[in-house]
Each structure stands twice: as C-alpha cells, then as structure tokens.
Specification:
mainly alpha; 2 strands
C-alpha cells in the first residue's frame, strides 16, 4: 500500500473517530462504509448520528469480529497479507 493511500485512510479514520464523516455529503459516508467493509478502517470509539439522524454504533457496541470491529479489520488485512494494526 502506498504512503499516499495509507495517509488517506489515516485521515478517514480520524474523521470516523470524531463522527464528522457522517455529517458530510453522501459520497463521503459511502466511502467510509466501503472502507469499513474492506477492513481499511473501523468504526469510531463513540457512537454517532449521520446527517439524517441514523444511529452509527461505536466499535465497542458491535460483536467482536463483525464489520467495523478491529478484529474484523485485522482478519481482512491478514487475508490480504498486509501489516497488522
């Protein structure tokens, strides 16, 4: 993974952690959700609400190993033989 892409995911994770990503335009939220599904980032440490008021759980409110958890991201990265968290 290139340094540029890694930096981009670091910025995305920071926006997820603060909850600000969920207040942005729809494409930003869709990018965040796709990145969560791909194991590149995880849900934030605190729950949030999106622009429409939908609840976005924290990484601690979901079952370990499910999408959005650190365990899920680790498993996906190991499958792709990438470096761990």
């Amino acid at each position: 993974m290139s340094l540029y892409i890694r930096k981009d995911y670091q910025n995305l994770q920071a926006a997820i952690d603060t909850g600000s990503i969920w207040k942005m335009e729809g494409s930003a939220g869709r990018w965040a959700m796709q990145s969560i599904e791909n194991g590149e980032v995880v849900l934030g440490p605190k729950p949030s609400r999106d622009y429409w008021g939908n609840y976005v759980p924290s990484r601690y409110e979901i079952k370990p190993g499910t999408k959005g958890s650190i365990g899920y991201a680790r498993a996906i990265r190991l499958q792709r033989a990438e470096s761990d968290w």
